[in-house]
């Protein structure tokens, strides 16, 4: 049954009182309830990458200002030199949301890279702010690398992330978001495509239409 099909039944109750038996009304109500989605519904089909061989990337943008994105953290590794892995968003004082493929990049032999840290409170991935060690991770159980399906995961810090003016959890919106919605991509990236440049150490933001 199509999850998004709605059932609309218009009943003239004055007429029903004379002609429709209570048993039939009950049956109609049961059939209507069957059209509702259940908590076990798998919506991940809508997030498949139909062409995983594409190499599209977001480039350009402008340098973000301090205080603009206090939820953003940098996943970094390295004991001597800091290497950027990915970005992430603070959800709680111990939880950061990121992509599953980012976790995969620092996960081997059953454990995370021991030098993995999350830098919070800075527009630079390699300086300022506070570094938080990561205790463990949780990757979506149905993550499929080949088609980048269910590409989401969580990182858990060993200590609480201290909130202040520069460090805050991201506001969560539980409403459904459809297509053709303007979105803002925030993170560390390149400003020009097809030209080798060092990864900028500062946060860039980019306003574009993503579908």
Automatic annotation (TrEMBL):
<dbReference type="GO" id="GO:0004252">
    <property type="term" value="F:serine-type endopeptidase activity"/>
</dbReference>
<keyword id="KW-0812">Transmembrane</keyword>
<dbReference type="GO" id="GO:0090729">
    <property type="term" value="F:toxin activity"/>
</dbReference>
<dbReference type="InterPro" id="IPR001254">
    <property type="entry name" value="Trypsin_dom"/>
</dbReference>
<keyword id="KW-1205">Fibrinolytic toxin</keyword>
<keyword id="KW-1133">Transmembrane helix</keyword>
<feature type="transmembrane region" description="Helical">
    <location>
        <begin position="20"/>
        <end position="38"/>
    </location>
</feature>
<dbReference type="InterPro" id="IPR009003">
    <property type="entry name" value="Peptidase_S1_PA"/>
</dbReference>
<keyword id="KW-1015">Disulfide bond</keyword>
<keyword id="KW-0720">Serine protease</keyword>
<keyword id="KW-0472">Membrane</keyword>
<feature type="transmembrane region" description="Helical">
    <location>
        <begin position="72"/>
        <end position="91"/>
    </location>
</feature>
<dbReference type="Pfam" id="PF00089">
    <property type="entry name" value="Trypsin"/>
</dbReference>
<keyword id="KW-0800">Toxin</keyword>
<comment type="function">
    <text>Fibrinolytic activity; shows preferential cleavage of Arg-Gly bonds in all three fibrinogen chains. Contact with the caterpillars causes severe bleeding, due the anticoagulant effect of the protein.</text>
</comment>
<dbReference type="GO" id="GO:0005576">
    <property type="term" value="C:extracellular region"/>
</dbReference>
<feature type="domain" description="Peptidase S1">
    <location>
        <begin position="58"/>
        <end position="191"/>
    </location>
</feature>
<dbReference type="InterPro" id="IPR018114">
    <property type="entry name" value="TRYPSIN_HIS"/>
</dbReference>
<dbReference type="GO" id="GO:0006508">
    <property type="term" value="P:proteolysis"/>
</dbReference>
<dbReference type="InterPro" id="IPR043504">
    <property type="entry name" value="Peptidase_S1_PA_chymotrypsin"/>
</dbReference>
<keyword id="KW-1199">Hemostasis impairing toxin</keyword>
<dbReference type="InterPro" id="IPR050430">
    <property type="entry name" value="Peptidase_S1"/>
</dbReference>
<keyword id="KW-0645">Protease</keyword>
<keyword id="KW-0378">Hydrolase</keyword>
<protein>
    <recommendedName>
        <fullName>Peptidase S1 domain-containing protein</fullName>
    </recommendedName>
</protein>
